[in-house]
Amino acid sequence: MTQDSMTNPDSRTDSQSTDLEGSNQTSDPLVDSSIDTGQSGGSGGETRTVIESRDLDVFYDETQALQSVDIEIPAEKVTAIIGPSGCGKSTFLRCINRMNDLVDAARIEGALNFEGKNVYDDDVDPVVLRRKIGMVFQSPNPFPKSIYDNVAYGLNVQGIEGDYDAIVEKALRRAALWDEVKDQLDSSGLDLSGGQQQRLCIARAIAPDPDVLLMDEPASALDPVATSKIEDLIEELSEEYTVVIVTHNMQQAARISDKTAVFLTGGELAEFDNTDKIFENPESQRVEDYITGKFG
Amino acid sequence: MATDQQTGTWYGTGEAVSRVRGQAFKTLCLSATLLALLSVFVLLLYVANDAFQPLSADTGWLLVTIGTVVVPSLAAVGYYYTRDTRAGETATIALGLPIVSLLLTGGVFITFEHVVSVYQWLSILVSLAVAGGIVYAHSRVRTEADLERLVVVVAVPALALWFIPKLILSLPMLPTQSIALLGSFVVPVAVVVGLFVRRQRENDRDGVIAAVLTLVGAAAGFGVAPVVGITPFVWMLLVTVTAVPVSLYVESVIRRGAGVSGLAFPLIVVGGIVASAVLTDTLGFAGPTPWLDWGFLTNVPSRTPEDAGFYPPLVGSVMMLLIIIISAFPVGVGAALYLEEYAPQRGRWGRLVDLIEVNIGNLAGVPSVVYGVLGLALFIRAGGLGSGTALVGGFTVGLLILPIVIISSQEAISAVPDSMRQASYGMGATKWQTTRNVVLPEALPGIMTGNILAMGRAIGETAPLLIIGAPAVVRIAPNSFTNKFSAMPRQIYTWSGEIDAAFRHGVLAAGVVTLLVVLLLMNGAAILIRNKYQRRE
Fold it and tell me: Pick from B116, B124, B105: which is nearest to B478 by CA?
């Protein structure tokens, strides 16, 4: 995908025009305090890597949750992370936007690069990182505020200026929620159904126009109808965003993802390849056993 | 199969299942509950009987009152209970709201009369407005200077509060008290009412109408109040604090259209009382001679039980509460926020924090008399503040409830689901933004509930007041925080030692009932706040 498709004119600030004109970014995007610097141009093409981990280990106190994980997540594709419970899939996801920083016991070794910069370097501000990487959580967790304020939350805290009404409407439209809530934007986000709440959370995450969208089992608390809506939505979003989704539903991974990573017990990455390959002809016997339901 | 053959059927109550111990346990628990409730109820009844002395009335008076007030009210209650619960809710609020508003009006009156004069209040408002203007202008001009803004935000209001009131109070020409009240109290209330209505109705015009009506209603006092026989000052307070909330509620019920018949309940009660008064007067029945009456609330303490009043201690309690609100609450909530949101959880410092938290719990259990000694040593001996003043009383009792405030605020803050904090951090919010935008608003109802309950504890404390030297009898209501003061429980304690039995039974009971009513109202407010915000979940 090229840069144009990543550009969302509504939510960009004025600084964006210079990004478009300028060639590759010279300054590091993460230590730059400006809100949204856009993708570094250049490589493009199918295989551009946005997130890459090198020998990533994560420990919770003495327990090792991830073992030397190497992975390269491509831009503007859906990458699914599957595996049995407790295999470290959520841990890996939370490493990407440094949500593990909030867990005192967590300790991270190795490198995790976002746009070529190790996010665990000392000069990376996790708050700036999280402004570039949106996240949707397992159970819907809208704020006890109005629907409008929920979607505008990221704009407010990130200090984004612009026509909030338009940005909110656009985010809700992309989250396929606008038609259902357009007449009740002032009512509480908690009044919505579970599936609507999760779509509200997605709208909230994409409103500030991040580069990457992390989803931690976004449909696990939802019924099949709501789940299929979320899945359709993810496929649409992948046209513009890099989506990394953790799921323990293998059919879901097969349906919506381009790439699939299989984590197995002990926090090791057993296999990472195109989704078709993983589900039809996996390299590893253990992955095949897991896919075919012999364990997990 | 085996059971089939032994008992004939596999179901039913067999010998194998014994419920005797369970039943006995349940009965014991029930009797414990009943015993507790009954003893408290009997005690309250006893005190209320002493305070109101209903049996001192003629039998005729009692019969007439039962006929005009009790029976119609009970009939209405029965109707609401069986036919229309929605109207029952309305009836409760329609009767309770005017009472609470009237008491609040009394509180505001006392505050303006004894604590902050209208001119002081006006000058404080002006200073805050000036300071706010400067801070706002600064944020517009210097958008990037964060540190500088912090200094401005702290320093400008402090300086403004220091200089501007002196300037205003030294002006040679001040408006009359009523005009000052109109400007400094009625106008802000009218603005708040207007904004409230606008938000409720999502209609600018309605908001303006509500604000203008409030203003006009209050200003009408200049013409109407003397005719009714009260000062324009009292009229304005009645309009803004009592009439406005009540009429807003009545209007909202009528517009909602459900439970409208509940609005009749206060009319039935008040109408019954009026009818009873008229009837007993014409028939010549004498009413009871309660110890707790209007005179008791507005008189000063006296040597004769019949003239004894409760006004100075009432004022003293209000002043003490004000001191507590502005001293203990910010400190307590701040400490709770730090301990919950910022304090290290692990390592050596984490253990220290744990130790501190355990000891805050211990402090909550320290006897109040010890806090009295602490207050005496800290504020009077070391701090050099005058003994027995409202300031020292407020600080001492504030110290006493500080652990309670911290613990209850901590509970409210930790009850905010972690998923909300995660959501906020995930959106790229900083710690401060998360605390400010998510944690505090979500925890505020719980914090307020806890603080109001702590205030209830504070208002009943006696021992610390004895130790810090609150006088046994205060004959003039204190007019400043550095005057000698007495609080309600202190005065009750004095009455309990009087030789005259009328003091020990009648007057004391009246004081106790007054104190309990204030306490019940505060606890009721806490419960209302809690329920209102729990319902949303």
Answer: B116
Q: Which residues of B touch A204 (CB under 8 A)?
A: 423, 427
Q: Which residue has the tokens 């001679």?
A: B289
- State the Cα–Cα distance between residues A269 and B165, nearest whole angstrom: 70
CA distance to partner chain A, nearest, from residue B225 (Å): 42
d(CA B307, CA B94): 34
CB A190 within 8 A of CB A142: yes
Angle between helices B264-283 and B71-83 (to 10 degrees): 160
Q: Are A141 and B423 in contact (CB under 8 A)?
A: yes
The position carrying tokens 């409030």 is: B214
Listed by start position, the domains of chain B span 72-289, 305-534
Q: What is the distance in angstroms between the Cα of A212 and the nearest Cα belonging to chain B?
A: 12
Beta strands in chain A (DSSP E): 49-60, 63-74, 78-82, 106-114, 117-118, 133-136, 212-216, 242-246, 259-264, 268-274
Q: Do B202 and A186 touch (CB under 8 A)?
A: yes
* Strands (DSSP E) found in B392-465: none
CA dist., res. A31 & res. A165, Å (int): 30
DSSP assignment letter at B55: G
Any idea where the domains of chain A sit in the sequence? 3-291
Tens of each residue's pLDDT in chain B, 537 residues: 444 455 567 776 666 677 889 999 999 999 999 999 999 999 999 999 999 888 888 888 888 888 899 999 999 999 988 888 888 888 888 988 898 899 889 888 988 888 888 888 888 888 999 999 988 888 888 777 778 888 888 888 888 888 888 888 888 777 888 888 888 899 999 999 999 888 888 788 888 999 999 999 998 888 888 888 888 889 999 999 999 999 999 988 888 888 888 888 999 999 999 999 898 888 888 888 888 888 898 888 888 888 888 999 999 998 999 899 999 999 999 999 999 999 988 888 989 999 999 999 999 999 999 999 999 999 999 998 988 999 999 999 999 999 999 999 999 999 999 999 999 999 999 999 999 999 999 999 899 999 989 999 999 999 999 999 999 888 888 888 888 999 999 999 999 998 888 888 889 999 999 999 888 888 888 888 888 776 554
Q: Do residues A219 and A198 make contact, with C-beta atoms less than 8 angstroms apart?
A: yes
Q: Which CATH superfamily is domain A3-291 in?
A: P-loop containing nucleotide triphosphate hydrolases (3.40.50.300)
CA B359/CA B371 separation, integer angstroms? 15
Q: Are strands A78-82 and A242-246 parallel, antiparallel or unpaired?
A: parallel
Could you identify the residue written with the tokens 């596999």? B10
B420 shares contact with chain A (CB less than 8 Å): yes
B437 to chain A nearest CA, in Å?
9
Closest residue by Cα to residue B273 from B113, B70, B434? B70
Its CATH architecture, for the domain B305-534, is: Orthogonal Bundle (1.10)
**DSSP calls for A232-289:** HHHHHHTTTSEEEEE-S-HHHHHHH-SEEEEEETTTEEEEEEEHHHHHHS-SSHHHHH
| Token code pair at residue A154 | 């990221």
A113 interface with B at CB cutoff 8 Å: no
Give the CA distances from residue B531 to residues B444, B526, B527, B535, in Å, rounded to whole numbers and listed in that order.
13, 9, 6, 6
